[in-house]
Amino acid sequence: MQKYIIVTGGASGLGLALAKRWAKAGAFVCIADINDEAANIALSELQTINNECFYQHCDVTKLKDIQQLKQTALDKWPQVDMIVNNAGVATADRIEDESISQWQWVLEINLLAAVKVSQVFTPLFKLQQQGYFLNVASQAGITPIPYMASYNASKAAMVSLSETLRLELADDNICVSVLCPGFFKTNLGDSLKTKLTNMKSMLGRVFESAEITSEQVAEQAYQAVTKRKFMILTHSEGKKVFRFKQWLPIHWYLAMVLKQTAKLRARVGKE
Known about the structure:
Elements: E1 4-8, H1 13-24, E2 28-33, H2 36-47, E3 54-57, H3 63-76, E4 82-85, E5 91-92, H4 100-128, E6 131-136, H5 149-168, E7 174-180, E8 193-194, H6 197-209, H7 214-226, E9 231-233, H8 236-247, H9 250-260, H10 262-269
Parallel strand pairs: 1-2, 1-4, 2-3, 4-6, 5-8, 6-7, 7-9
């Protein structure tokens, strides 16, 4: 079991749920985040589980912050066993309306931050002769929906990055898993950038009415990592749609998804 864990974006939502799940299993956890206020509240909760957990302010888009995160962890711990690349934001807009600056913003946080973290910690994992990356992508990265091109693309890239690293680092005893949850109760909508009011309200309702909680997603992730499973799908509907995408001719699959998203396209199209 991984004993020394760093969770980026660990101050709230799924990141905090993952931190708590590993802490309950006896791990020492560092939550890395930019929201100091939320992180201090989260840390007080974490320390009721394991009082050796700590918080490190870290903007994962800044290389110097990631390097400082590594140094702080090694000052406190003998090693780092696992990195959870969880920090992320959400976007939704029409392809013709979404600015390149918004594309750059979501890619910088959802993808390139994980690349930077991986570049900083991979040499340490190689030196230790063991390590684990748990990368948080999304169901949207494997079965995307309309009007979320930049978000979908960032998460699809995270899946591809994870598969690449799984193969590239295997001989160094470094394992990689990618978590692809569907909609669950979370605060991801708080970071949503969009000009589409119908899309924002619809996604808000979906997050709020989701039957699966962040704690349940974290539990599934924990169990899958103990088995060193690569792709972790958490929702039964998401698993079914992904299987259809794998098994059906692509034009059949796209026809199915066009039918499923017809109401969404009609509602957003009215704006």
